[in-house]
Amino acid sequence: MIKSTMKNLFSMSLRSKQIAIFAVAFALFVSIISLVLYEGSKKSVTLHVNDEQIEIKTSTHTVGQLLSSRDIEVAEHDLVIPSVNTPIEEGLTIRWEQAKQVEIQTGKETEKIWTTDQNVGDILAAANIDLSEHDEVTPNLNENLGEDLRINIQKAFQLTLIDGGNEKQMWSTSTTVADFLKRENIQLNEHDKLNRKADGFVKPGSIVEVVRVEKVTDVVEEPTNFAVVMKSDAKLLKGREKVIQEGKKGSVERKFEIVKENGKEVSRKLLSEKVIEEPQKKIVAVGSKVAVASAATKKSNVVVSRGSSAAPSGGKEFYVTATAYTAYCSGCTGKTATGIDLRANPNLKVIAVDPSVIPLGSKVWVEGYGYAVAGDTGGAIKGNKIDLFIPTKAAAYKFGRRTVKIKVID
Questions:
Q1: Residue 237 is part of which domain span?
Q2: Which residue in 27, 208, 262, 401 has its CB near the most CB atoms, within 10 A?
Q3: Model confidence, pTM
């Protein structure tokens, strides 16, 4: 009985172990089958995170779930392609780019935008910022955004440049005159001038003028005038002149400092002077002899007899307009320009002449008057005009004005 009982208990224990082993084996089988089924349900996708590419298998159902499973939090401005609600399919390519806040500085104005673009030109285009070809952008339009996430825009404006007198319209982003000239590679020489201070500001419509100043030294040889010396000569009749020595110009070397502005001379300063040749004086004898007319004699040079006489065969002949005057005319003193006292010698034959036509002291023959001396002048006696001395007013009035032939004998 005991033996039979022990046998039964052993049989039951063995059966329990078999059941336990079977249960474990079944559970393992189910787990393996489940794992195989689970892995078989995953889909292969390509995930681009910023600039990194990842090949993964996922059992998530949407793009949003996949990103969340990778601990990626999608912000409002991030770029997700396709959208977060797109179902996961085998071979799907997913792109996620994290947005960055970029500061755009335009002059004194600042604008902040969110973007996933890297290229500066693309960022500004997306922000609808208009640029001209003359505007200056930092970094350059074809560069990627720097780490400071900042873009600086300097808007260009038009101004006028006058350089050496040449005017042209320019575009600039400079704020000062000095910076503008530097950017345009305009060099200033030592003496050049600006119409405004170098550290002065420029703005739209400004005029920047560069006056090109040049200092040069010029050496020239110039003539110098001669002096005229007048010497009294008692042998010449009063009013006559005779050149004793001709004048001759000298020469002098002068050194000048010349200042030119835009090629035009504005000042000339004498630095030194050197005489090369002294001038020769002109010496002129001036007559001081008073012509004394006497009663007619055969040896007298002045004929004082009244009436006409025959014309001489020699002498310079020409026609003049003749009038008459007396020693007692209005404003007359009775003395001629050569010192003859007509009131004391009423019978002398004297005519007033233009000394540039008939030299004073000349002996002349006048048609209808005879031989006379050119011994007087008159304010109205210019050119081919003469005035005959006649003793009485009646005879002077009677003579009137007429054209006569004269000859200058001596």
A1: 218-286
A2: 208
A3: 0.49
